[in-house]
Design brief:
2 copies of one chain form a homodimer. Chain A is about 40% helix and about 20% strand.
């Protein structure tokens, strides 16, 4: 029998006290969480070794095993992340809007925590500490459903964090780990409407799709990025080359990595002979349309599927387009609403592109890789929302809050 | 075969131009919509008479027939509502947040329309013009799924509005009416993820529950209100009487009407003998617990169900509680997160109540009836959200928008 409904009910009770904790109390808990992670480093590494051993037994790829592995340095980085959270401003209690109405009623719209946040994520166990910290700082209780491959690591981390929270006189049930040995816990979490206020899936497209379709708990969709770089006819070639290469190759497996390059026909003769050899040198396979293939025999003919693929690898779909509006059409058909970039010196072109692209972020003469809570100066990020409801783009602490109207009168009636 | 997917696709195309329309263009359309409604008054009344005749044939209640009936005065009120929208500020293009990052990147977070909004509503045909106007002003295309009983009225209104929009050189498909003769259109709307950006159900609890549970399109939940008035031991009796009576009786059938009254035991001896006769005089049936019943023999014994009932009628559940925290517990168990009021002269009590009640609005010494976009000074309201994601409380024009980050660089790379 699953314990998710009970854990969610416990989280709700904890969330009421946590919502009313002061910033000082929460920061004290975060600093204690950081200190305890470092003190218990040996235990956490030992727990992690169990997961790594199992992963090797299950023949997981070396890349996945690397992501799973916790070293003393990585544990220190987790602790430092918690200390950085303590240094950030507390969004709870911010007055978002306020006025005195004509009848004398005093209206304030105040930021409050959601209450209980559910997180479903894959892979790296450091997400466990990050998510727990961000939720605690924003006054939310969190239910963590991590990866089955990180079972032992996550249990060790959460045990340390819960003890620290309790020692800081906040409710330990503000941080709870859900059973990761069964898909049932994800299903029950998705059905815990009324107990869980918001569900944030972080991971591959199939996980996110399943949660979005099945959850009755409100969802914030994150992370799938089929990002485009469009090189306009009025582009500066040097900037175009630098930004396109950086967008594709600075890191291959992130959601803000470019997966498609669109080149205006008027500039293709000058730009494609510049970038195709650089892409080849960087080990990137180009999947191009017929016009692109004419420039370089190493180009792989693109299929219809390529335009919709988030490769997360050293592959790039490249097409020649006849106009800015053709580029916009292409992006409308194939984009995922994450990040779209234009390289152009034309004010008219960049203004039209920024106005008509429907995405969380539009980059003008800048790399798609900048769509990131850290780069945007938010100090903490729990994911990048690609939906339009509630939060869009990198989500920091304020995005983990709701609001409440507090209206003060003196016996006012209508 | 239903036309919803095609209508949604048409709405998406229209939404791109509408999102980029200027405030002047949208206001011109709104004023033309208002003028045309008045010019075509006779046609609209004639269409409405068909619905009213059918309603009488189907033996609908007189109250429902009154809600359905359009008079010249009601049509002028619809037109005036559109003119008021034209006078309101345009939220689209507002810079919500902006900064220049350390590397020189210029970051702006700008308000943009959602795109396509789906509205499912019951009853009064004036909602059709209101919703169309609010969506147009906020730059959104709208798919309207009204009540089957208002079929002919809604068709006439939407036809007039579409022609006005087209004459104002905006896309007529920004306003479309869905087939209200079948539940299939609601089902298809709920499954139009990717074409419809947000779905707003307005109506009874069962409609809202169905949409929330079945929709894959993100939903903003509205309107169910089991609102409480808590009379604290430190209440001013005169204010308590005025606010409690107003919260219950000023209008019986709205979501911000009080349905439960909680009275602190210390003040019950003085307050209940005051309010129980007044409630009786106002024709309100009191469903009370044993302690309340001791004060007046006309009190109907409350069942467990009463505490959870949104009566929307001349009924009130009344309980005596032993403390502020007992009141908070009661509200936590039975509230719907809409509006909760406390009557008290104690700063400590009102502060604790406001901090610990989990609701869209908390009233301190003021009637629950004030939770309303008009009362809050928003100028327009498309509903009252009782969820925590995106919008909470009365939703005006800004609540019908999302945001987009526009980041401008000069060849910036990471």
């Amino acid at each position: 029998m699953s314990t998710v409904p009970q854990q969610a009910a416990d989280a709700r009770v904890a969330s009421i006290d946590l919502a009313n904790a002061t910033r000082a109390e929460k920061d004290r808990a975060l600093l204690l969480m950081a200190a305890r992670l470092e003190e218990r480093e040996a235990d956490i590494v030992a727990a992690n070794e169990v997961d790594v051993r199992n992963a090797r037994g299950a023949s997981l790829s070396e890349a996945m095993i690397d992501r799973l592995t916790l070293t003393p340095a990585r544990i220190r980085a987790m602790a430092d992340g918690l200390r950085e959270l303590a240094a950030l401003a507390d969004p709870v209690g911010d007055v978002v809007r306020g006025s005195t109405l004509a009848n004398g009623l005093e209206l304030r719209q105040v930021r409050v925590p959601f209450g209980v946040v559910g997180m479903v994520y894959e892979g790296r166990p450091n997400v466990t500490a990050d998510a727990a910290g961000i939720c605690l700082k924003s006054g939310n209780a969190v239910l963590l459903r991590g990866s089955g491959s990180a079972l032992s690591s996550n249990a060790a981390i959460v045990s340390v964090l819960r003890q620290a929270v309790a020692d800081a006189d906040l409710p330990a049930n503000a941080i709870q780990l859900l059973d990761a040995t069964t898909r049932d816990s994800v299903k029950e979490l998705m059905r815990a409407r009324g107990l869980v206020d918001v569900l944030i899936p972080r991971g591959g497209a199939s996980l996110i799709k399943a949660v979005v379709e099945e959850s009755t708990v409100p969802v914030i969709e994150t992370g799938v990025g089929n990002c485009h770089v469009y090189v306009d006819e009025a582009a500066d070639l040097e900037k175009a080359l630098a930004v396109a290469m950086n967008s594709k190759t600075q890191r291959l497996s992130t959601c803000n990595t470019a997966e498609s390059l669109l080149v205006h026909a008027e500039i293709a003769d000058r730009f494609l002979p510049l970038i195709l050899p650089e892409l080849a040198d960087a080990g990137v396979t180009v999947h191009g349309d017929a016009r692109v293939a004419a420039y370089d025999e190493s180009v792989v003919p693109a299929t219809d599927e390529d335009w919709d693929t988030e490769y997360l690898s050293a592959d790039l779909a490249v097409a020649v387009v006849d106009s800015l509006d053709d580029a916009l059409d292409h992006i409308r058909r194939h984009g995922t609403g994450h990040t779209e970039a234009i390289i152009s010196e034309s004010v008219t072109a960049t203004r039209r592109f920024a106005a008509r692209v429907d995405a969380a972020a539009v980059m003008i003469n800048a790399s798609t890789r900048f769509t990131d809570g850290g780069e945007f100066g938010f100090g903490a990020e729990i994911g990048i929302s690609t939906q339009k409801l509630h939060a869009r783009g990198p989500m920091g602490l304020p995005e983990l809050t709701s609001t409440k109207y507090i209206v003060t009168g003196n016996g006012h009636t209508r």
